[in-house]
Design brief:
This protein is an alpha+beta fold. It has a domain of 280 residues: Antithrombin, Chain I, domain 2, CATH 3.30.497.10. 30% of the residues lie in helices and 30% in strands. It contains twelve helices and 13 strands. Strand 6 and strand 7 form a beta hairpin. Helix 4 crosses helix 12. The longest helix is centred in the N-terminal third of the chain and has 24 residues. It starts with a helix and ends in a 5-residue tail after the last strand.
Length: 422
């Protein structure tokens, strides 16, 4: 559905750009106890990282939307994914590290600067509005006795306050421990990220994000104004929805391609942006336009105060998606192959097995509740086999042998044994 598809991408984008300007006078009028938003003190480099995070968000959404053609509703959290990828990135080296950073839209920044940026966001965003709940949590779950470099744990403790836990992945309760962490950090909205733990999985890196905010004073939707109304789907079919309605002075922008308006939460530190394609433009056409350089950021800045009659469907969506293919399309395909270099995590060859995200959002007359968990699964590369499972190598048929010098890789001898008695 056109309106529903775009909500959480705008939520995650606006979470990093919501420290706005003159809107707060009207928002706080009559509710002085709320206080003005605390603005994030971002350096020029950090402001550029935020803009690149917006680009990452729309590129990610476009890729997910193109791959989930059977889904009418899509809800993603670019911020949750970016933080989870950043933790994985701290264990990558060489071409793999460059590919992940490029996909994240942060290819020109040193590691410490990127980590410091996400640390600042994670610490500052929850403090910008005491009336709005925003919580971020990170964790790393490792198979018991799997050798992990302490330096990898240290960097993710330092910058991401990651909870580090070793678990017996062979135990049937291991997945329950991980899922309980997900539930605890999303107010019970996302209860199951891990259904089973495959034998080749050695690590889960996770980010959980939770948001709950009430519309600012004077911006809630009167419940008696919610009516049954028609909603036209992309295929032209019409369905009945519960359409909320309200009239207020809001930021509004319109051009040949789209129109958008927004509603603030709490003290105005956060807002929800609503975007619609204009005229005969399709939803996909609007997304393609938003991917043009600086178009999204320019649109978000260009709103003017107008009296707006706003009608938005009341909705609740749960969404789950695997992000391997979108991330491969965004340039980090090597991370999912046996050629991946995660030597910053372990001396044992690893690759990313799966990146998965589960999201929840409910929008009603009072406000919004939303949650996301992103999980990156690290697996043994196929060339390594599984050191955790017994194997048998029985040379009872012709076999090849070689003698090799380790440091150079030079092969000194190579041969075949077809009959060891001769």
């Amino acid at each position: 559905m056109i309106i529903r598809k775009f909500f959480l991408i705008t939520f995650a984008i606006v979470a990093m750009t919501a420290c706005n300007n003159g809107d707060n006078e009207d928002i706080n009028n009559g509710s002085e106890s709320i206080g003005a938003p605390i603005e994030l003190d971002l350096s020029p480099a950090e402001m550029k990282l935020t803009a690149e995070g917006q680009v990452f968000g729309i590129e990610l959404f476009s890729a997910v939307n193109a791959n989930e053609t059977d889904k009418e509703n899509i809800v993603i959290s670019p911020l949750s994914l970016n933080i989870a990828l950043a933790m994985v990135w701290n264990g990558a080296n060489g071409e793999t590290k460059s590919a992940i950073q490029k996909a994240m839209g942060m290819s020109n920044y040193p590691q410490e600067e990127v980590n410091a940026y996400f640390k600042k966001l994670s610490e500052a965003l929850p403090k910008t509005d005491p009336t709005t709940k925003l919580a971020l949590a990170n964790s790393i779950w490792t198979r018991q006795d799997f050798p992990v470099k302490e330096s990898f744990y240290d960097v993710n403790r330092q910058w991401y306050n990651a909870k580090i836990s070793e678990l017996d992945f062979n135990s049937p309760t291991a997945k329950d421990v991980i899922n309980q962490w997900c539930s605890d950090n999303t107010n019970g909205l996302i209860k199951e990220m891990v259904k089973e733990i495959p034998v080749d999985i050695v690590m889960y890196l996770m980010n959980a994000l939770y948001f709950k905010g009430e519309w600012s004073k004077g911006f809630a939707f009167p419940s008696n104004d919610t009516k049954d109304a028609d909603f036209r789907k992309e295929n032209g079919q019409t369905v009945k929805v519960k359409m909320m309605g309200q009239k207020s002075e809001q930021s509004y922008y319109s051009d040949d391609y789209l129109a958008h308006t927004s509603l603030p939460y709490g003290n105005g530190a956060y807002k929800m942006v609503f975007m619609l394609p204009n005229n005969d433009a399709s939803f996909n056409g609007m997304i393609e336009r938003l991917k043009q350089p600086e178009y999204l950021s320019n649109c978000l800045r260009a709103g003017m105060k107008r009296e707006v009659n706003l009608f938005v469907p009341r909705f609740k969506i749960e969404f789950e998606t695997e992000l391997n293919k979108p991330l491969e399309q965004m340039g980090m395909g090597i991370a999912f192959t046996d050629f991946a270099d995660f030597s910053g995590i372990s001396e044992i060859q690893l690759c990313i097995s799966k990146v998965k995200q589960k999201t929840f959002i409910e929008v009603n007359e009072e406000g919004t509740e939303a949650a996301a968990v992103t999980s990156a699964e690290m697996a043994l590369a196929s060339a390594e086999g599984s050191p955790l499972q017994p194997v048998t190598f029985r040379a009872n048929r012709p076999f090849l042998f070689l003698i090799q010098e380790n440091s150079s890789g030079a092969i000194l001898f190579m041969g075949k044994i077809g009959n060891s008695e001769q």
